[in-house]
Specification:
Elements (H helix, E strand, L loop, with lengths): L22 H12 L4 E5 L5 H15 L3 E7 L6 H12 L8 H10 L6 E4 L6 E4 L7 H14 L3 E7 L12 H9 L5 E8 H10 L3 H6 L1 E4 L5 H13 L7 H11 L3 H13 L7 H8 L1
Parallel strand pairs: 1-6, 1-7, 2-5, 5-6
Antiparallel strand pairs: 3-4
Helix pairs in contact: 1-2, 3-5, 5-6
This protein binds adenosine-5'-diphosphate and magnesium ion.
The site of adenosine-5'-diphosphate has 19 residues, from α2 and α11.
Amino acid sequence: MATLNNPFVIYGYKGSEYFCDREEETEKMISALHNERNVTLVAPRRMGKTGLVKHVFAKMEKQDKDIKCFYLDIYPAKNLDQMVGMLGSEIIGNLDSVSQAAMRRVQEFFSKWRPTLTIDEVTGRPTFSLDIRPSEGRETLKQIFEYLGQSGKRCYIAIDEFQQILDFPESGVEALIRSYIQFLPDVYFVFSGSQQHMMEEMSLSADRPFFQSSSMMTLSCIDKEKYLDFANNFFKGQSRAMDEDTFEYIYDVSDKVTWYVQAILHGIYEHSKDVIDRQLVDDVVR
Ligand SMILES: Nc1ncnc2c1ncn2[C@@H]1O[C@H](COP(=O)(O)OP(=O)(O)O)[C@@H](O)[C@H]1O
Ligand SMILES: [Mg+2]
């Protein structure tokens, strides 16, 4: 990964060197998945759920070349068919290396949905899209899971913004997914979402033991001392430093929300003023 001009990332996950702490949470999630447990990650928006999931997957894929991790953000999905379409594009084609044999397998498995292969112009990565007609979602989902099952590979699937299924016009989506999951021999899931809605989903869920049998995780704020160390590591490169008092102030102003803390640090890093103090924080926030 190229070195970033501004190490305080405010959008997406850019690698472990730009990721602060979350060591315990990382270990906990990896351990749960490694021991064949699904994970439910619930925390307020912008605390770092997506970042953590990507960090965990990057680490796992680095440690074990034989596994496959799939990440899906279903925030844009408006119904089951759209979610299944997204799942299909993420999984199909990324499961196997793109060989002739793999292509044939996809064509055979999904012939009903006329899979088309497109090469992503930016990444050069081949992706398949399926032509899912309205209300074929359920059937396609079954097929996708069967495809995973016969791959013989250990797979991990993260479904981010999972609370989105509450807004789907179809009912019982969670129950549907759950019914498949129980029979998938070597596929484990991370469901992540924002507090209120996920909690709602869990209490609505007919079979709450499903959620209870998965490992529940939440995210609180990042430890202050560790965060200050992380920040100063980068400010050192600019021959600057931040003192505890100033960082304390940032934590006050930001309500300890990771995204907001990052945004302030990002602004300070961009600012050329020599001394990092409360005044500079105010200037950046304004
Ligand atoms: N541990 C971390 N270290 C540094 N930046 C982080 C960390 N966790 C999250 N961020 C940053 O904070 C922002 C919000 O995190 P995100 O994972 O998108 O939150 P959520 O998914 O909970 O809404 C992202 O831009 C991300 O770059
Ligand atoms: Mg997120």
